[in-house]
TrEMBL record:
GO terms for biological process: immune system process. GO terms for molecular function: zinc ion binding. The lineage of its organism: Eukaryota, Viridiplantae, Chlorophyta, core chlorophytes, Chlorophyceae. Residues 13-96 form the RZ-type domain. One of its GO terms (cellular component) is cytoplasm. It comes from Pleodorina starrii. Keywords: Cytoplasm, Immunity, Metal-binding, Zinc, Zinc-finger. Its main location: cytoplasm. It is found in: Cytoplasm. The gene is PLEST000616. It comes from the Eukaryota. This is RZ-type domain-containing protein.
Length: 101
């Protein structure tokens, strides 16, 4: 019982937590520009759907490993690795919520 409810609660707050993390990083990284706009060009998804950030220009110049699943993320020569993409849906949800305030 305790295990089950803890897991359900965790899933229910994940999106909210994710949004708070995204916004915190965006505010820190956007150098005084619009953090929501920053998100739309700097947040990507690993092949398994985990969000990660690409700093500086937003171009993937370095390959790395997803901290959630270890899949290859980023890329080289400003090209994304296979299976990686911009996290458009996630950013759209964050933008929608940010627009409400
Ligand atoms: Zn992953």
């Amino acid at each position: 019982m305790t295990h089950g409810s803890a897991r359900v609660a965790r899933q229910q707050v994940t999106l909210r937590e994710q949004r708070e993390v995204l916004m915190a990083v965006a505010v820190a990284e956007c150098c005084g520009r619009d953090p929501v706009a920053w998100l739309s060009s700097h947040v990507f998804m690993c092949p398994n759907g985990h969000a990660y950030f690409v700093g500086e220009c937003g171009c993937p110049t370095q390959a790395g490993s997803c901290y959630e699943c270890g899949a290859q993320v980023g890329g080289s020569g400003h090209l994304l690795g296979a299976g990686n993409s911009l996290a458009r849906e996630l950013v759209a949800r964050v933008q929608a919520e940010a627009g409400v305030r």
